[in-house]
Each structure stands twice: as structure tokens, then as C-alpha cells.
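Bumping with the actual sequence this time:
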Amino acid sequence: MQFKDVIGQIHAKTHLIDEVNRNRVSHAQLFMGNPGYGGLPLALAFSQYLLCQDKQDNDSCGVCPSCQKVTRLQHPDLHFSFPTVLTLGNKSDMFLPQWREKITENPYFNLNQWTLYLDEKGRKPIIGTDESQEIIKKLSLKSFEGGYKIMLIWMAQEMNTTCANKLLKILEEPPDKTLFLLIVDNADSILPTIISRTQLLKLVKLDDELVASELQHQFQLNKDTAISQASLANGDWIEAVSLNSQSLQKDVNRELFVSCMRVCYKKDVLSMINWAEKLAGESKENQKNFLKYALHMFRQSILNNYVGSQLTRVSAEEADFLKNFARFITGNNIQELMNEFSDAHYHLERNAHAKILFTDLCFKVMRLIHFA
């Protein structure tokens, strides 16, 4: 993995390369941001750059023996730790073949995707106590090739408390030329003592135009479709790829949204109940995708009202609907609408009764849509 293969994150790439060039690489670094922003690919590219035998100005060479080993995820000085399902195995090394396969297939994935790849039952994975002992053991050995020893810990927030505590000493006083790269999607679940021992690198969400360009390049989408999906993904490449694979579902979401807004505006209670029952019959994942789509359409409506259609990011079909609909979304109701749909998503994730939830949501929309 080279820096050129990482989507966006120009500032982060420049910062990391500058660290190496100035010989001021922090021994423990925390990459924080949604997985779709590219924390794992960036850490892999940084590792390859550090271990490269023929560094270029802005990237690793990609062809030296060291780069080839990193590309295959088999460099003896690059170690990995990641969440595992303890009932299947308590150490990352037991799942290295699956780890290599998953990254080779696509280095952009989140914890849920890794969990389902690892375990068809979807049991929650963690980084357990035995893993901390394995990390300390690996890093106590000398470097095989005389350079850095790198320990990449993916989804470090999944370390249990015992594991995290056992790593505190080596994080603060690591052996010479030892580098920790911790990748997290948020820092809320990490011990403050871990955070205090690392240098934080915050990853930013990807630019919509960049995501749209990548979608066009990788999936041969037309420009309008790519722009619409990129806007809905909100700077998250994993979400953008997921939306592309669910393009048929996006058409369903558009029809669901249009019909919901129409029956709510007409105050057609029976149709509202029927609509809620129809959506309740969908899978939970489709229901959550619909709620995210609705939030996207509310944002595009308010943009259309205040700055015109030239800055909206929608397909031709969506733009046609917004011509008449957007005027019903104003400063009087936008915040409450966004809150209600966000709350619905929150409660759905916590196993709320879908039919009751969507019926209640319809009545709230009916009230709010007349506040324009």
C-alpha cells in the first residue's frame, strides 16, 4: 500500500512524510476518524514508507523487497493486532490469513464488516488480555531487518481494560526503533492513559468531489449518479461503496421518501399507517439506510432553498422532485425534522418496534411539514 493508493488525506500524508524526513517520528501515534476516511490504508502506507529501502520524495518506491513484503502483509517487522471473536481464537495471529485476504480484497472496511467476515454469527470481537502479552513478546525481539519494528493495532478502542493497562508501560517506554500505530474510529472508549501516550492524528472526511471522482473511476458511474452517492456518503468511502452496491435500494428509498412526504402533507392517516407498515417489513439495514437517505434529502432541500440547485448533490430524478418539495423545508422545521429522523435511527439501532416507530415518525412529519 502506497500513499498514492490512499484516497484524499493530503494533510495527513504530508505530515507523516515530513516526520520521516525530519527524523522525528513519534513512537506512538493515534489515527482517529471513521474507517471510511482511510485510517487503515494510511497506516499501511506509512508503514511501507518507513520500511522502504528506496524512499521517494512523496512515497515509498513500491518495488524494493521491503515494499513487496509489506504489500503482501508479510514483512517480519510489521505486526498486526485487531479484534477477534474470543470463542474462535484469542490472538490476532490465528486470523492472519483472513486479515491478509480482507485487506487484499479492499483495505477500506469497518468493524462490522470485519466481524461478519470473521464470524457468520456476528459475535462481538475484542482485543483481549492474551493479545497484550503477544504484543509485548513480539516487540521485545530485535528487528529482523535492522530498521523499525511496527505494531499496527486496528480498532484499538476494542481493547479490554486489562489489555490496555498491560500495554501502558511499553507504550511509554518502547524499545528502540519501535513504533505503535493505533487506529480508532473514536477515542471515547480508550483509556485516557493510552491517549496521553500517543500523538493524535485526526483524519478528516473526504471531499465530495473526490469521492464522486473515485466512484466514476472505480465503478464507471455517470457523473450525476456519482455526485448524488458521494453527497449521501458524507465523506465516507466505505459508505459510498455501500451505497453504490445498493443502487437499487436507493431507488426504493427515493420512492419511499416521496410517498411519505406526500401522504404526510395530505394528512392521509390510513395511507401513513400503510406506509409505516410497508417500511417496517424491510430489513433493519434497509430501514436505517432509508432514514439516512431522508436526512440527505432534507439537507439538499434546504441547500436548494438558500443557495439554489447549482450546489445540491442529487440525481436528475431527485432534482425533479425537489423543484416542488424543497419549499416545504425551511428554517422553521429543518432542525426538528433532522432531529426526529436522527432519533429514529438511534432507536432503531436499539431494537425499537419498527411499525410503532415509523407510524409515530409519520405523524411528526405531518405536523412539521406544515410549519414551512
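The C-alpha cells above came from a reply further down the thread. The mean pLDDT is 91.
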